[in-house]
Amino acid sequence: MKNFIKTSIVKMFYVSCVVLALSSCAKEETPAFENQNLETLEVDSSVITSGEGLNNKSSSSTTAKTTCDILGTTTPQAGNQYSFTYSSNISNPTVTWTVESGAITLISSSGNSATFQFASNFNGGSIKAYGTNGSLECSDIQSFRRVPSISCPDQSCLGISHVEGCIDFLAYLHCANNVVSVDWEYTIGPYNHVSFGSTNNPNGNYTIPQALYLPTNNWSNYDLWIYAYITLSDGSTCTISKKTVLTNCGPGGGNQ
User: Fold this and answer.
1) What is the DSSP string of 7-51?
2) What is the pLDDT of residue 234?
3) For 152, which of 49, 120, 222, 238 could close a Cys bridge (C-beta 3.0–4.6 Å)?
């Protein structure tokens, strides 16, 4: 009897240990399982939020890539008007032109073009063109800095040299550093504003020469006028002229 009781107690002890062990294992595994679920939910929530943000971005910036540019001078001169054009891959955009900064005034705009007045006290600034068509849009800002004004060479820079008698001459223009080209004409007697050539000045030389040959005649006491039609490096143009009086010219045109 005693042995039976002892054996029963031992069996009950082992059973209790097994039950306690299983219970302990269950308690340790459950939190890990629960944390895993919570962690998964957090990740899922984060992905959804991030996905919504990317979709919003793509609809405004990657649905259709737009480009645009303002075309026109980048070196405006104070006191002048200039026209600009909005160029874009947006089809038939509605373009709005504005002055961002500086002594600049919007004079007129039509379609993709606009004209601005740069005031006499202009010292730098910028303009903006904003184009839209439905959900597509693109804007560009063009900044400017003041460029020192380029003036026409003084009349004293134009000269005429006699090469041979009263027939062969050399016209020249000094002070031509900012001169791109010169179209030359002369006037004498019945010959009025006759072209005698054009001279380009791509290297900005100080002096531009041009040969002049007059028709054979007795040009004694005639006034020979030289006209220089000048194009400056900023695109502007001007004209200067000079007169010389021919003396002692014989019937053949040479000096007597």
Assistant:
1) HHHHHHHHHHHHHHHHHHHHHHHHHHHHHHHHHHHHHHHHHHHHH
2) 79
3) 238
